[in-house]
Write a structure and sequence with these properties.
Layout lengths: L15 H19 L1 H20 L3 H29 L3 H7 L4 H30 L4 H30 L5 H12 L1 H15 L8 H27 L1
Length: 234
């Protein structure tokens, strides 16, 4: 009598959301062990905020720039470092040969960058409120949606262009040179909307800024989903 050999079924590739969550969790575990991105970007953002408070005395008119300028520069630092990790020891090659969709890889990396940005903003906003004598409890409910809308666009577009420049030698310089002009709609809308918010505008009165940021976010995320694969495969 011949024994029947039961072979285990081959492992199924993760689902789209499961793959994105796995990439996101990987970046979080690395950052939890090293604290590299949050320490560097957070300290830099804090330094820029303090310098702005010392250089300018008109708090209500200077505070919007003191919030968004550190966000922009610390975002570039976070993007550069998160992709540099994938370049070390050919980790990016391992991600590309994994049986996961390229769009899931983009979303996982983008979600990690977004979380790093929000963590930096959690340091910047209270510091700006303290140094510029702003009522944080009064402005926070209106400021947080504006920051979130802007951060999604920065993370989405930054993740896409970070993947484009990861193989270049002067990647940080190239990333900043390419990214900042493209982020100008987000930064200008964020600064202008924050200024009006500090002047007493309601969320309804900021609808034009939210519309512009929303369109930019959709284009950044959708463009990343469709273009990320061809860019990293080239």
């Amino acid at each position: 009598m011949t024994a029947t050999v039961v072979r285990p079924a081959p492992p199924r590739p993760p689902s789209f959301l499961g793959a994105a969550a796995a990439v996101f969790a990987k970046d979080l575990r690395i950052e939890w062990r090293t604290k590299e991105i949050l320490t560097t970007a957070g300290f830099f953002a804090l330094l820029v905020t303090v310098m702005a408070s010392v250089a300018f005395l008109d708090g209500e008119h200077t505070a919007p720039g003191a919030i968004w300028i550190p966000i922009a520069f610390s975002g570039v630092l976070a993007l550069g470092r998160t992709w540099q990790r994938e370049r070390e020891e050919n980790a990016l090659v391992g991600l590309l040969v994994a049986p996961i969709p390229r769009a899931a890889l983009f979303l996982g990396k983008g979600a990690g960058v977004l979380l790093f940005l929000l963590a930096v903003e959690a340091v910047i906003v209270p510091t700006v409120a303290l140094l510029f004598h702003l009522d944080l409890l009064a402005i926070a409910p209106r400021l947080l949606p504006l920051l979130l809308a802007g951060s999604i666009g920065i993370a989405g577009l930054g993740t896409l262009f970070g993947a484009m420049t990861v193989r270049t030698r002067a990647r940080d310089l190239v990333l900043a040179t390419v990214l900042f002009p493209l982020l100008s709609p987000v930064l200008l809308s964020g600064v202008a909307g924050t200024k009006e918010l500090f002047d007493g505008a309601t969320l309804r009165e900021l609808s034009d800024y939210f519309l512009l940021l929303g369109v930019f976010d959709v284009l950044a995320v959708a463009g990343g989903i469709f273009l990320f694969g061809p860019l990293v495969d080239d």
